Amino acid sequence: MLHSICRIHILVYLTFSLFFFGALYVFIGYSNSFVSIFQLGNLPKTKDDAIISSAQINQNASLKDYVLKEDVVTRDGVNNCGRWSIEELKMQAGLKYAQPSTQKGRTDVNSVTNWNVPLVWEGTFDPVVIDAIYKTMHPGVAVVVFAIGKYTRFLEAFLESGEKYFLVDFRVTYYVFTDNKQKVPQVKLGSNRKISVITVPGAQRWQEVVLGRMKWATIAIENQIRNEADYLFMMDIDSVFHNRFGAESLSRLSAVLHRGYYKNTHRDKFPYERRPQSTAYIPAGEGDYYYTAAVWGGYLEDMYKLVKHCYAQAEEDSKKNIEAVWQEESHLNKYLLYNKPTKVLSPEYLWSDYDKVPADIKVVRISQLVKDYKEVRPNGGH
Ligand code: UD2
Questions:
Q1: In 43-150, which ranges are continuous DSSP H helix?
Q2: Mutational test site, ligand 1, from 210, 215, 233, max ligand atoms within 8 Å of CB
Q3: Are 223 and 288 in contact (CB under 8 A)?
Q4: What is the pLDDT of residues 123-139, one digit of tens each?
Q5: Does the Cβ of 143 fall within 6 Å of ligand 1?
Q6: Which residue is closest in CA terms to ligand 1's atom 6?
Q7: Ligand 1, pocket-test mutation among 144, 150, 151, 240, most atoms within 8 A of CB
Q8: 273 lines ligand 1 (CB under 6 A)
Q9: What angle do CA 125, 130, 134 make, to 5 degrees?
Q10: Which residues contact 171 (CB under 8 A, 6 or more apart)?
Q11: What pTM did the predictor assign?
């Protein structure tokens, strides 16, 4: 009798232990999932990030999916939860391209800055390789253009040529800021490409428009673009693409050398803001290059930081009744002097129909159109 009671006790004890440890195991498993849902739930910034988050909470998620979670990049206090980090340069196996040389390359121009980032010219990259690398990330690229007043007439040629040459086969959204949405043309777009029209007020002075680009870009990134893109370019609308403008232009911050000052101009002759009263002031003896404000771009959060800073600087100036000599271009140059770009693009990335093309510019990728300044601007002039 005693013997059989003891047996029953052991059996009950074993069943209970099995149940208890089983429940503990299940609980630990779930609580880990809970932590990852919680962390990710707060972070996704783009649609793709949201897709990745749901991949992680999916019970079938593979180890690879789990590792992606670690790609949370914190830069300047901003959390970007993404599938990739900007520094990754992954490429698929089996891609066919010419073997790179350590001996041959451009020798007529400098293709590196003195802070050791690429200075991009035709012949310094392989389009097949560089596009393949960036395509693995499937980035969304925003192009911000303004077409206020009579500048809407430039939209069609810009958009049509952009479709032929600008980051072809990438995800691109053109954000057209205009005071007259009726004038935005219907343009045939490639797949994964669209136009988003944002209405802004017109202006009495062209200076207001060009300077206002920093303000409107800041607001639009905060309200909309941040959820839709990974990279952002700011571009002038009175220009046309003529040749490939590809992934070689992408980096954390990419700026284009102004065609007028890239070759033999002493830094003291750059048209920087020279009045100390302006926040855009750069003293003589300082400066690397003179960058154009007609084409520049970068990683969305870095661009946001830049446009927001320049907007604040312009506001500061306006309180003191001063406007920088070349408006937003002056503020951009000041910013880029002390926050170096991570790629410098040669004037191939913005030439001008006003000027002859010299021998070192092997390819004109975009060119500014000739326009009648007096006729097209609300307050004339140049
Ligand atoms: C130069 C720069 C430009 C800007 C400006 C500041 C080049 C090629 N461009 O251009 O980036 O720094 O100087 O002075 O060096 N816009 C309108 N409506 C207007 C006026 C301007 O939509 O009434 C927009 C439009 O997108 C245009 C851009 O602002 O492309 C720049 O204005 P611009 O083309 O009149 O300036 P521009 O040629 O002096």
A1: 47-57, 63-68, 127-135
A2: 210
A3: no
A4: 999 999 999 999 999 99
A5: no
A6: 326
A7: 151
A8: no
A9: 155
A10: 138, 139, 140, 141, 192, 193
A11: 0.81
